[in-house]
Amino acid sequence: MPRDTDVAAPALDVAGLSHAFGARNVLRDVGFSVRPGDFCVLLGLNGAGKTTLFALATRLFHARAGVIRVFGHDIARDSSAALARMGVVFQQPTLDLDLTVAQNMDYHAALHGMRPRLGRERAAVELERAGMLGRAGDRARLLSGGQRRRVELARALLHSPGLLLLDEPTAGLDIESRRGLLAHVRMLCTERGLGVLWATHLIDEADENARVIVLHKGVVLADGAVAEVVEASGERDLRGAFDRLVRDVEAPA
Amino acid sequence: MTPGQYGRCLNGVVKREALRWLRQRGRFVSALVRPLVWLAIFAAGFHFVLGVSIIPPYETYVPYEVYIAPGLLAMIQLFNGMQSSLSMVYDREMGSMKTLMVSPLPRWFLLTSKLLAGVAVSVVQAYIFLAIAWFWEIDPPLLGYLSVFPALVLSGLMLGALGLVLSSFIKQLENFAGVMNFVIFPMFFASSGLYPLWRVKESSLTLWWICQINPFTSATELIRFALYEKFDAASAAILLGYLAIFMALAIIGYDPGRGLIARRAAAE
């Protein structure tokens, strides 16, 4: 794949993105970008528009206005190139529970047109990293919630994408699994220079080294390093900053 | 995307469908038991009530069991099409439809792959049924087993495409009873599957017209003729027409720009 034009481009670039379901505006003029190596937390309450943003970024449907580019490739016009460079972990579990872990990985490799041998090699590498190689022959149904998530993460990385999108990946996980998953993704970010967009409503998933984008009712209220966002708000921590940002918008002008 | 990538993707989708089918024993067994119940009980009961006169492609009087066998083959495929359509709805709610949709291959190709995978499963089921039906003296000529293959593929494609269309329009995970009542039973009963249409014409001309344009009738007749090494060109043409319409509708239904999925997302 020709990558020379991709190098300078951000992993994910969202500009002027608006979407509405009927008369209800879900996203209004949303813009931000994620560079390779960025760990970026998209923070918002339920209903903030995170899942719609993910649906648009993964081309489940087109936005009413605005552009989404993945390494410079427009998701609407050049979707094949954009999707090939993107790995996704959806909010809902997406493993086929009747199939084994290895069969799930094979299926994903096939969907990306990978040769079976290459697919199996890559699957072994990614499952190993996720600590799940020993369970490759087990049916997905036998795995715990945390283990399924790790397999989904390994699967999302199978085709070596440069951008990783995760929509509330820790939903339903216990504290231990949550911490493990977060640490694993942060490591991928630093080691492989992966651009990561991690959507969540859990404020503590954005630590002081992360970048945070606060999305509320379809509008970006803040975008920057956690420390900067906290400082700009005049509060002591991110929770305080988030509450203030939301309160300022909600308060009648 | 290279042709090799297309081929590997198609192969992967078909393989997954086959694996799921083998794993879900209940689906496998019920797909075979259902037509056998019709054959063993319904047809046996009507054996003496309904006399079937000599109509093409048959050259002699045939027992009622022989008459309804092609309709039961089409029913296997109809059930299969609906089941895979429901599994699409179910898949989407479970999210694995999304896994399919984020593949970098074009969406029309992904839908076609999904359709072909369903057809492969339904053709295998049809042959298993034919093997068992042999014990009920449904024994078409040996070459008929070969000539019925393209007919099963074409009818499977059409019924599978109908399933795809329904899956893109059905709003939520609906129970199978709804599909049975509003799709499967009306299609099956208003067709030539259970009774020759000249009998229907005698009782109601309107119903006869409904039966005539019912794609299930064409599927049944194409299979019936093919099983006796004959080609029913009119039915084949109707099936192709319906296939084109259903496939076009399915591609529109899943098009990211047309917003049918978006509208569904709005309703969630």
Q: Please, could you describe this protein's structure?
A:
The complex is a heterodimer of chains A (253) and B (268). Chain A is built from 8 helices and 10 strands. In chain A, the strands form 2 sheets. Chain A has a 6-stranded mixed sheet with strand order 6-7-8-3-9-10, sandwiched between helices. Chain A has a 4-stranded antiparallel sheet with strand order 2-1-4-5. Chain A is 36% helix and 25% strand. Chain A is globular, with a radius of gyration of 18 Å. In chain A, helix 3 packs across helix 4 and helix 7 crosses helix 8. Chain B has 268 residues and is an all-alpha fold. Chain B has one domain (3-267). Chain B contains 12 helices and no strands. Chain B has helices at 3-23, 25-46, 64-94, 96-101, 107-133, 142-169, 176-189, 197-203, 205-213, 215-227, 233-253, 260-267. The mean pLDDT of chain B is 85. The A-B interface holds A 21-22, 24, 52, 55, 58-62, 76, 79-81, 83-84, 86, 88, 90-96, 98-99, 103, 106-116 and B 1-2, 4-6, 8-9, 11-13, 15-16, 19-20, 23-24, 93-96, 98-106, 110, 256-257, 259, 261-263, 265-266.
Strand content of chain B: under 5%
CATH architectural category of the largest domain in chain A: 3-Layer(aba) Sandwich
Q: Considering DSSP H and I runs of 4 or more, what fraction of the residues of chain A is helical?
A: 25-40%
Number of helices of chain A: 8
| CATH hierarchy, class of the largest domain in chain A | Alpha Beta
Portion in beta strands of chain A:
15-25%
- Tally of DSSP β-strands of chain B: 0
Query: SSE string of chain A, helix = H, strand = E?
Result: EEEHEEHEHHHEHEEEHH
Count of distinct structural domains of chain A: 2
Number of domains of chain B: 1
Task: Tally the beta strands of chain A.
Answer: 10
Please give the largest β-sheet of chain A.
Answer: 6 strands, mixed
Predict the CATH topology of the largest domain in chain A. Rossmann fold
Structural class of chain B: mainly alpha
Tally of separate helices of chain B: 12
